[in-house]
Amino acid sequence: MTRILLVLIGLLFAGIAAAQSGPPASQAVLSYTALKAVSETYSSPAITSGTLTIDLSAGTVFNVTNNADITTFTIANAASGQASAFTLFLKGDGTTPGHAQTWPTNVKWPSGLAPTLTTTNGKVDVLTFVSNDGGTTWFGFVAGQNY
Length: 147
Fold this sequence. Notes:
By secondary structure, this protein is an alpha/beta fold. The chain contains 1 helix and 8 strands. Helices cover about 10% and strands about 30% of the residues. It has a 6-stranded mixed β-sheet with strand order 1-3-5-7-8-6, covered by helices on one side. A two-stranded parallel ribbon has the order 2-4. A hairpin with a 6-residue loop joins strand 7 (about 125-130) and strand 8.
């Protein structure tokens, strides 16, 4: 929800700036907006040689089949000096005990504990990541598991 709100605010400020000849978008005031639908671009990167790269220039929603250990997890192209967010859908492939994930040190989890991911074939875990410092630090949390 936070990610959608950030995207919408950015779009609204851009629209206000284009439609007015007054102050720049950074000084514009949004008083009321009604939305009927929101959509986001998604991408389906693969785990290749233990590496999963989340490229934020390709979208904000990522569908990944969790079919290999992830030894290198990279988040690329976060907007410098801005808040960013993305959602990661990880689909289990039925491998037991499951594939290992090595999260980078700049991904922080509640109480310092990364989630244990679902291994059941076809079941999906949804993880959301937000950064308030241009991608230097990411806060990860479980939006849902075993869907």
